[in-house]
Specification:
4 helices; six-stranded antiparallel beta barrel; 141 residues; alpha+beta
Length: 141
């Protein structure tokens, strides 16, 4: 069994993404860098993640591969919703807003059509009584 060093992988992906070229093992057009403020440290924390364009909205999914707890980046934005987004060749400040109600249900259904693996993530998360958040990255004026 191969052990993956997530921090090293993230460091490599961030470096390749910012260099503007191919990102090894990933689809560049579905990738964003999200910088949150660490809820404990107060330091900027950047993570690469899959992003989905829904009309004029940029969406990210806090699936954590179906783990029983939300990913750290999501916990950070619960404490401070202001984030920095690098996507589609540009950077912008945004507010990270979780989708709710009918918008969540409609969007989750659409996301599962595009990314069938999310159904497996949701099934695993439900075992831990966790609902996977979908977050809109709303560009600040």
């Amino acid at each position: 069994m191969t052990v993956v060093d997530v921090r090293e992988t993230n460091r490599r992906v961030i470096e390749q993404f910012r260099a503007g070229g191919e990102v090894e093992g990933m689809h560049r057009e579905r990738l964003a860098l999200l910088t949150t403020t660490g809820r404990l440290s107060g330091e900027p924390r950047t993570v690469p993640m899959m992003v989905h364009r829904d009309g004029s909205r940029w969406l990210v999914v806090a699936s954590n591969i179906g783990a029983p707890r939300h990913p750290d980046w999501y916990l950070n934005l619960e404490a401070d919703s202001r984030v920095r987004v690098e996507v589609d060749g540009r950077s912008f400040d945004a507010e990270a807003l979780p989708l709710l109600g009918a918008d969540y249900v409609r969007t989750w259904t659409e996301l599962e059509k595009h990314y069938p693996f999310l159904a497996d993530h949701q099934a695993k998360a439900r075992q831990a009584r966790r609902v996977i958040p979908i977050v809109e990255l709303s560009e600040e004026d």
